[in-house]
Specification:
Layout lengths: L1 E12 L4 E4 L1 H11 L3 E8 L4 E6 L3 H14 L7 H6 L4 H10 L2 E7 L2 E2 L6 E6 L5 E12 L1
Antiparallel strand pairs: 1-8, 2-7, 3-5, 3-8, 4-7, 5-6
This protein binds zinc ion.
Length: 141
């Protein structure tokens, strides 16, 4: 029978491209759900953050912010900053590029991820804040 389970992860975040490995949190929620086969959606609530997968190691934790700084510099002129004066135009653009959600297949109670593939939450905003990440598990028990 089809089941749906929902829970949120709360993370303290430093902002400014702070990258956190949330694989353990997601796995915990999947285990709690009791669902065996289906899909898991991980979604960042808010338009200045992102969810993707990454090999969570120090080199990439430095390479990713460097790449984003080249593509979408923190201190360029963005029309969004003229609208709100919040200085985080780059944060919204980075979020739109990386995207805010990820779907992972769930097979026999295991997330289908590569050995070096972790689920990461990236915060592009320009300030510290508490973040909410939605996890929805859908499938059969
Ligand atoms: Zn803004």
């Amino acid at each position: 029978m089809m089941s749906v389970y929902y829970e949120e992860i709360l993370k303290e975040s430093e902002g400014n491209c702070h990258i956190q490995n949330i694989s353990g949190d997601v796995t915990g929620i999947v285990n709690k759900s009791g669902i065996k086969n289906g899909i898991v959606t991980v979604f960042s609530i808010g338009s200045t953050a992102g969810i993707t997968t990454l090999e969570y190691e120090p080199g990439l934790l430095s390479d990713i912010p460097a790449m984003l700084e080249k593509l979408i510099p923190s201190f360029a002129n963005y029309k969004h900053n003229d609208t709100w004066g919040d200085g985080n135009g780059h944060s919204h653009l980075r979020s739109a590029l990386i995207k805010t959600s990820l779907t992972v297949p769930l097979v026999n109670k295991e997330l289908v991820l590569g050995t070096w593939q972790q689920i990461v939450f990236m915060d592009f905003d320009n300030r510290h804040r508490t973040r909410r990440i939605a996890v929805q598990v859908m499938g059969e028990k």
